[in-house]
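Researcher: Sequence recovery benchmark, item below. Answer with residues only.
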């Protein structure tokens, strides 16, 4: 691909991949949150729902969750505190290290997780409809490749 294909008509850089992925990610987050609210989970905000990403919260330490989401431990604990008060999860002592806590979903939390994943599936289907099956399969394949390659680089300084 030539650099000319990335330029806009005014001579500046065209939209960067990160910016475009950000638009898609925000759309997906909006779809997830709207679906969660429509399913009756009106005691949550988008930040609470945003904690859930595959493979979920079960068994994570709050510090691991903070690292994975790129937010402070204090912010994660504030969000988890609300989820705990609303009955979605418990923070229990880690059997491997009693000083640490791990997240355990309640039955209400598991139902919420299933709802979030169903909404994620619906958003993915909508993207597949927009792109068509062939282009969606290519996008999925390319994103898998990038994810595999970049996940390792996230652990390196």
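Model:
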């Amino acid at each position: 691909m030539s650099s000319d294909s990335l330029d806009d008509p005014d001579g500046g850089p065209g939209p960067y991949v990160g910016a475009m992925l950000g638009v898609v990610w925000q759309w997906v987050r909006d779809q997830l949150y709207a679906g969660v609210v429509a399913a009756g989970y009106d005691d949550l905000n988008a930040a609470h729902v945003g904690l859930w990403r595959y493979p979920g919260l079960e068994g994570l330490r709050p510090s691991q969750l903070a690292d994975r989401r790129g937010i402070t431990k204090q912010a994660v604990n504030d969000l988890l505190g609300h989820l705990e008060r609303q009955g979605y999860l418990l923070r229990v002592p880690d059997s491997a290290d009693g000083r640490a806590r791990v997240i355990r979903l309640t039955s209400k939390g598991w139902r919420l997780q299933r709802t979030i994943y169903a909404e994620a599936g619906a958003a993915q289907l909508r993207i597949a409809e927009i792109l068509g099956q062939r282009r969606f399969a290519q996008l999925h394949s390319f994103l898998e490749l990038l994810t595999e390659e970049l996940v390792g680089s996230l652990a390196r300084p």
